Amino acid sequence: MKMAVCTTIWYVHLSMSVIGCVNMKRCFNADKGKVIISYSVREFLFLLKNQGKLTGYTPASILMEGKDTHRLLQKQAESAQYQKDVPVKVALSLSGYILLLSGVADGITTQQDTFLLDEFKTVSLSVSELTQPVSKDHYYQALLYTFAWMQTRNYSSGSFRLVYYHAHTQDKKEFLYEFTSDSIQREVSELVALFAPYGDALAKGEIIKRQMCNHLRFPYQHLRSGQKDMMHEIYSSIRRKGTVFFNAPTGIGKTMAALYPALKALGKNRCDRVFYLTSKGSVEKAVFSALQDIWGNQPFVRTLFLTAKEKICPNHMTCRDNPCSYQVNYYRRIHQARRELLENHVLYHRKRIGQTANTYEVCPFALSLDMLEYCDLIICDYNYFFDTTALLLPFAQKCDNAVVLIDEAHNLPKRVSGNYSGKLTSADLVQIQEAVF
User: Which residue has the higher pLDDT, 70 or 89?
Assistant: First the structure.
């Protein structure tokens, strides 16, 4: 007798938050009839970044040094009117959507009719030689914090102090900027105008997605045995933010039974994103086929098929040794590439990402990662989600209301156990001994 092959799909609802990380969120406000797009100030400015090449991560030691500097400078600024680490938030009502910006000011000194906001930055260059802020982002970060505080507290004037501090020499340099409500409004309006193309595309896409997902119908005339139960359990699990496992035979249509309730949940605002994790490329083809059956020739959910760097890189990953031309001036070119995808497409597969990256001469893998923020459905290999060194992990950790569908989860332990394991060699121990003793 031929035995049915069993395949497991594991669904888990993530509900996690990481201190200091606030990713872009979208939701529909039925009362005001507008989409709400929410960013941290830092990520909002990163989106608008228009110069520089792709770089690596900031070392943890530098981040810790910055925290120490903040505590030191906050202590020096202490007074009866001083508050440290002040949360700030402002909502800007724009055409078709509301832009919500938030962050934490390092310190605010309040007076009767005005205030002084502090923004501290640790640098390794000689601060005595500075004649202007090191980065425009530093200026705009403090500007937006000041604007938010001025708006929410009804101040007609205010100022901010941008302080650069060298941790080793203990030298510091201050830049002071003063504003009226009108002057700061003009600067913020110019900054927000740069976001308009993204905001318009996101708001339009969000409304279409909600409408279509809300009225989503099962694409086949008849349900297969087990599909209805599976869809019911998955949707119920999403509603209660739970976890559910399935062990089902091949051929019942598990891919559709997993995707359909997840997309319905998107339409009902029960989740912000859906991750579909696979163990092999052939499964991605099944997902693509199922999605085509759901939406036909008119995709309505921003969907990214994340392709491995070695498969999508046109230069065979030579950037490991030297930056390639697609990395140089990446942030100057990325705006046009991003707008092309957001304004004209909803489905971002390997071919489309590659063509767009080639047209605008940007790194296709970096472009894929850049588009993560804007996508509601992300299909990728296990490793991108569970590998502690993968670039997707920090993004996934910021998604505090996401659904994760894991296909063939019985393969998961074998595939990812190495990511959470470590080994020490005798050479490592010798290095540790020399460093300590």
Answer: 89
